[in-house]
């Protein structure tokens, strides 16, 4: 079956940590939330807070009601899914296209269109580190225990860096 909502060009979709909520981010600057109830997906709302496309989103690894969005409007926003409201806005240097949480939930990595990775401390809403790459950064992820950070790049490679020093 299909689950439809008034969206145009969905860029990202993700389930929360316990599989009870689904969120999507779209080109039309919209975040849409659904709740799963007895195997039926119920639309909870559309939220237009960003001034640019919502290119990727991800849920907190252990808090089922917290997620973050990466947008072309040069912001990362933290959300409370229960209220549909933004709890924090962090400004970045470029149009953000990918995002991921650290396994402990304390950090977010966000990549932009010019291959700058910004690492954010969620507890303080501050930039913790930045790393500019000379190659295309496609996807980003921490390993499960959080001591390594993975990057897929435009050269067809997976780059593995230690966290938090970002050394090979």
UniProtKB/TrEMBL annotation:
GO terms for cellular component: THO complex part of transcription export complex. SMART domains: WD40. WD repeats lie at residues 10-44, 47-89. It holds the Pfam family WD40. InterPro entries: Tex1/THOC3, WD40/YVTN_repeat-like_dom_sf, WD40_rpt. Keywords: Repeat, WD repeat. Gene3D superfamilies: YVTN repeat-like/Quinoprotein amine dehydrogenase (2.130.10.10). One of its GO terms (biological process) is mRNA export from nucleus. PROSITE patterns: WD_REPEATS_2 (PS50082), WD_REPEATS_REGION (PS50294). Belongs to the THOC3 family. PANTHER family: THO COMPLEX SUBUNIT 3, THO COMPLEX SUBUNIT 3 THO3. This is THO complex subunit 3.
């Amino acid at each position: 079956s299909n689950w439809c909502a008034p969206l145009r060009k969905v860029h990202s979709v993700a389930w929360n940590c316990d599989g009870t909520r689904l969120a999507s981010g779209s080109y039309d600057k919209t975040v849409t939330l659904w709740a799963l109830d007895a195997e039926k997906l119920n639309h909870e709302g559309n939220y237009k807070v960003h001034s640019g496309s919502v290119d990727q989103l991800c849920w907190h690894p252990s808090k089922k009601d917290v997620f973050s969005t990466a947008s072309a409007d040069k912001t990362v926003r933290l959300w409370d899914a229960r209220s549909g409201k933004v709890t924090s806005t962090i400004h970045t240097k470029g149009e953000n296209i990918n995002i991921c949480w650290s396994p402990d939930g304390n950090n977010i990595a966000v990549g932009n269109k010019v291959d700058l990775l910004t690492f954010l401390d969620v507890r303080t809403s501050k930039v913790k580190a930045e790393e500019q790459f000379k190659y295309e950064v496609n996807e980003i992820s921490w390993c499960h225990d959080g001591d390594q950070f993975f990057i897929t790049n435009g050269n067809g490679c997976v780059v593995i860096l230690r966290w938090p020093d970002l050394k090979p």
